[in-house]
Known about the structure:
The protein is built from ten helices and 13 strands. It is an alpha+beta fold.
Amino acid sequence: MLSEAGGQATLLGGTTDLFVHWPERMLDADGVFIDLSGVGALRAHRWEDEALVLGGLTTFWDIIQDERADREMPVLVQAARTVGAVQIQTRGTWAGNIANASPAADGVAALMVRDAVVELTSCDGIETIRLDEFYLGYKQMRLRRDQIITSIRVPRQSCSVERFIKVGTRQAQAISKIGVAIAQSQAGWRIVANSVAPAVCRCRTVERALDDRVPLPHVDALVELLGSDVSPIDDIRSTAAYRRGVLARVLYHELAPLCEWVGPQRGAS
Ligand SMILES: Cc1cc2nc3c(=O)[nH]c(=O)nc-3n(C[C@H](O)[C@H](O)[C@H](O)COP(=O)(O)OP(=O)(O)OC[C@H]3O[C@@H](n4cnc5c(N)ncnc54)[C@H](O)[C@@H]3O)c2cc1C
């Protein structure tokens, strides 16, 4: 159906993002909407030897309820619990979070920090893309209009550190002013931030500094490093200065107890 629509159709997942703009879309008389909810095969998630595989319709709630996810990939559960509130978590999907391409997407940050890979299916076949190579700019991504996100593979590498921290106006029903996912595994450090760039992004300069054990004696050192990684803006939710400063402080607060090279230099007060 997608193929026949010649790239003009809109896929409906949980519709939690789409319904926000629904009155405008209803005026679009020529719109073609394809409801995925009848495609049962897209819903289930499964554990394979190498990866947790989310379906194109797997919801945040499906993962919150999976005790194994809480044990093996707590960052996913932590992020899922911050998305909207229970009503949104039970309808909203991980794939919709990715395809909506919001810079504030919490699910994307948690998936990206675990090196997730997106599987895109069309009549031409299946394409796989690492999530950290998926976004090209604000609301721009490597997803063609004739492709469906059919699954998301999250590698099962064990992480010695993994967590998601979100700063919003309140604990539920709040879009991130900033969010950050942190992980460390054999692959090295991963720091992924949201609401601080045109798309959710890895903070590669900070990651390299952590991998190389570069001393980070104070918050300002992190603010400086983040300058190459993020480009926050002023908008209705916050200011660029607040976002940059708070992201650095949250990171410092989280990392200092874990890394002896982050925190006050010996002898410093
Ligand atoms: C009150 C409220 C609170 C919210 N709070 C948060 C929050 O705290 N954090 C957060 O990150 N988000 C939040 N959201 C946004 C939203 O809930 C999430 O982005 C959710 O994951 C979207 O998933 P969905 O299945 O509902 O997507 P939909 O609304 O169905 O679709 C979103 C986009 O993805 C496309 N799409 C959907 N499924 C697929 C697929 N399988 N393949 C390709 N394209 C697809 C659609 O065509 C559309 O363009 C909130 C939304 C609301 C209304």
